[in-house]
Amino acid sequence: MINPLWLRSFCTLVEIGHFTRTAERLHMTQSGVSQHIHKLEALLAAPLLLREGKQFTLTEAGERLYREAREILLSLSNLEQQIGQDPSHEGLVRVMSPGSVGLKLYPHLLALQQQYPKLVIDYRFAPNLDVESAIAEHRVDIGFMTTASAREEVSCQAIATEPLLLVTPVAVTDPSWQALQQLGFIDHPDGSHHAGLLLGANYPAYQHSQLLAQKGFCNQISLILQPVSLGLGFTVLPAHAVAAFGQPEQIKTHRLANPVSETLYLALRRNRVAPQRVETVLSEAQKWL
């Protein structure tokens, strides 16, 4: 493999046309420049220069090498600059979170992308376990979770809390235990978990969501409240998901005697230095959480 330093000495010599001045330009000795040329000639098994006293001309091999070497050195220089650059508002940033957090954050991150069109936001909605795996496997730059990770590769930091809310059809004014039993439960992927936290803290008769009449299930965060708005049942959801529902006049939110909130954790790959664009998105996200 050709040493790039030899190529730099050769190209500089060709462009300056003088060994002494080449050595001065490169902060080398003249003999050092000559050694680089001799090593190139030995490696390529071809003479590169026709020496005439202190002057020289290029052989055909020397001319070909100069054309190719100049492009190689330019590419190396560009590569060094590109790798060294770390723009704050350019490039891809991959984010993953549970749905409620995503409904809150995604519009704000899109607004950030509008402000900086070279910034590309890839936002995925996913349950905690998927977020955890994606962070550990370097498939995501920023993760948000509602449970702390136990994996060694994932660093978790509590950054916010989000209230859990009991949501019923708008006609329900007194969400007694009897009223909830009559309504039935609209389940969702985190339904049992959320119901256990909020209902368990406020209704002594509550044991498990499975004991409630199941009136439906929806795994699309933006649609979970649709059956509730139609009077088909009640559910328990984080506040961001409730706030994002497009027909708030058709549902009623109840804040119970014993409020319950979920902790939101920022999940990052441990021992990984985040690029500036990731820091930009992270800073914007934390503003809204």
Automatic annotation (TrEMBL):
Pfam families the record matches: HTH_1, LysR_substrate
Keyword DNA-binding (UniProt): yes
Keywords associated with the record: DNA-binding, Transcription, Transcription regulation
SUPFAM superfamilies the UniProt entry points to: Periplasmic binding protein-like II, Winged helix' DNA-binding domain
Positions of transmembrane segments: none
PROSITE patterns named in the record: HTH_LYSR
GO molecular function: DNA-binding transcription factor activity; transcription cis-regulatory region binding
Limits of the HTH lysR-type domain: 2-59
Gene3D superfamilies membership: Periplasmic binding protein-like II, Winged helix-like DNA-binding domain superfamily/Winged helix DNA-binding domain
Membership in a protein family: Belongs to the LysR transcriptional regulatory family.
Name assigned to this protein: HTH lysR-type domain-containing protein
The organism of origin for this protein: marine sediment metagenome
Source organism phylogeny: unclassified sequences, metagenomes, ecological metagenomes
